């Protein structure tokens, strides 16, 4: 498809956003109105007003019993008018063009009780025939991605990327600890004949420099950008990426989740803090709930074209596959419009997480857990941590930070921030804990709020010191 055609489609979609949304909802309801789930509310009707009046707002947990029934072998029409052929655990958008180096890992495919495959979508994709076209644009072969040993797979993926960093060969020998035969065979084909000059260059850049600053551009000099996610909790890695990439553009192309594909970034070279996503009205039917200052929800539910500039919303998704008015949990702010389609930026929190802590008496306390690279003489200055706590509240300009400052000063509703200093490596241990429980290492995000008792224990066991600030943050 040509660029001109792409732009014309975008213009049509965004200019006719309301019509597109109405058509999407009508198509979804006609296909699914007679399912067991929707028929309770619509009695076979595809009327939009009846849908808004009768179909409840739900979370994933509310529809999980229906999903479990399909997984256990009951007919798909419990939820969907079309046959359900697989369950995917995560939506990952592929690359459309160019040769890319991207770390991918697969997991064993399990099955539901009735035999449907169950795995992250990237695993199903990497083990399907559709990967053949993607493989041509990738620096790695499918056998390396499919290696069950994540450490061997990571090493081989990185090696293949280095081999092709200058469109030449790196070395003729693969480390003996790589025992997966598929990995060894695939990498050996790519390695070709030895190239000691390139090997020396890689060694010099990795071990002969005082710092790894700019290591990405030093090893891959033709790199034009780093494609990554810069929203939500992953925003914390922006300084790290800028350090290693010599401040190459960080590109966040789209906003997608397990529920649906939401929208695209029309200004991909914008700075991470300015990234907004234009919602595409043909992807799903979108509604939005006004988000109140305390992290709850209030006000009416509005359609995509009726959101207001500057307001905060939680999106609801009605998709083609059986989710209806399902809460996503993200908090978004309207930053503008492209034709009739709104543009949103993320807030660095989820609904219900704007204020979290432990209730002590009638006050809510807030814990900030910090892992420091180094401290003066091995100690931590109390005054410095007080100023840290004070500055954290004072400097924040987000919706959540403003709310926190206000409630912190009102009637002592929120107590002082507790700063906990933990041992170096604590957050690595936290990541290892979640990965050991099945989280993908490539999709792991350092949590902003932890409810797991076991995960909290990982942090508690490594606390070195605790501090409280008595100062109230400025309004």
From TrEMBL:
The record's listing under Pfam families reads: GH3 (PF03321), GH3_C (PF23572), GH3_M (PF23571)
* Domain annotation GH3 middle: ranges: 277-347
Q: Cite the GH3 C-terminal domain residue spans from the record.
A: 408-452
* InterPro entries listed in its UniProt record: GH3, GH3_C, GH3_M
| GO cellular component assignments | cytoplasm
Family membership? Belongs to the IAA-amido conjugating enzyme family.
Q: What is this protein called?
A: Uncharacterized protein
């Amino acid at each position: 498809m040509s660029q001109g055609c792409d732009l014309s489609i975008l213009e049509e979609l965004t200019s006719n956003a309301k019509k597109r949304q109405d058509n999407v909802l009508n198509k979804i309801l006609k296909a699914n109105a007679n399912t067991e789930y929707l028929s309770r509310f619509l009695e076979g009707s595809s009327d939009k007003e009846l849908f808004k009046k009768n179909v409840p707002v739900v979370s994933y947990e509310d529809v999980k019993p229906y999903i479990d029934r399909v997984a256990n072998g009951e007919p798909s029409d419990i939820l969907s008018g079309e046959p359900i052929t697989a369950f995917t655990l995560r939506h990952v958008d592929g690359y459309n063009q160019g040769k890319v180096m991207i770390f991918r890992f697969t997991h064993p495919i399990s099955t539901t009780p009735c035999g449907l495959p169950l795995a992250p979508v990237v695993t199903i994709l990497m083990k399907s025939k559709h990967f053949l076209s993607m493989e041509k644009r990738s620096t790695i072969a499918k056998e390396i991605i499919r290696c069950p040993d994540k450490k061997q797979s990571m090493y081989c993926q990185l090696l293949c990327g280095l081999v092709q960093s200058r469109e030449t060969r790196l070395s003729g020998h693969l480390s003996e600890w790589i025992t997966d035969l598929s990995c060894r065979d695939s990498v050996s084909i790519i390695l070709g004949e030895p190239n000691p000059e390139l090997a020396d260059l890689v060694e010099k850049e990795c071990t002969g420099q005082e710092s790894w600053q700019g290591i990405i551009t030093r090893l891959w000099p033709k790199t034009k950008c780093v494609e990554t996610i810069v929203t939500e909790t992953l925003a914390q890695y922006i300084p790290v990426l800028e350090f290693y990439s010599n401040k190459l553009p960080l590109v966040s192309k789209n906003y997608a989740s397990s529920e649906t594909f939401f929208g695209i970034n029309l200004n991909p070279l914008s700075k991470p803090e300015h990234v907004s996503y234009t919602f595409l009205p043909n992807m799903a039917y979108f509604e939005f709930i006004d988000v109140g200052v305390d992290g709850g929800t209030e006000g009416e539910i509005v359609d995509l074209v009726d959101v207001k500039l500057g307001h905060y919303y939680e999106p609801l998704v009605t998709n083609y596959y059986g989710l209806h008015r399902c809460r996503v949990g993200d908090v978004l702010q309207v930053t503008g419009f492209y034709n009739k389609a709104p543009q949103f930026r993320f807030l660095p929190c989820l609904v219900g997480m704007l204020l979290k802590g432990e209730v002590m008496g009638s006050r809510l306390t807030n814990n900030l857990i910090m892992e420091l690279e180094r401290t003066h003489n091995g100690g931590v200055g109390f005054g410095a941590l007080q100023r840290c706590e004070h500055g954290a509240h004072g400097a924040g300009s987000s919706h959540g930070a403003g709310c926190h400052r206000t409630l912190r000063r009102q009637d002592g509703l929120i107590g002082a921030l507790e700063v906990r200093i933990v041992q170096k490596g604590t957050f690595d241990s936290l990541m290892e804990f979640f990965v050991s429980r099945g989280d993908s290492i490539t999709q792991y995000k350092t949590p902003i709020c932890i409810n797991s008792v076991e995960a909290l224990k990982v942090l508690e066991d490594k606390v070195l010191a605790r501090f409280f600030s008595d100062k109230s943050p400025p309004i």
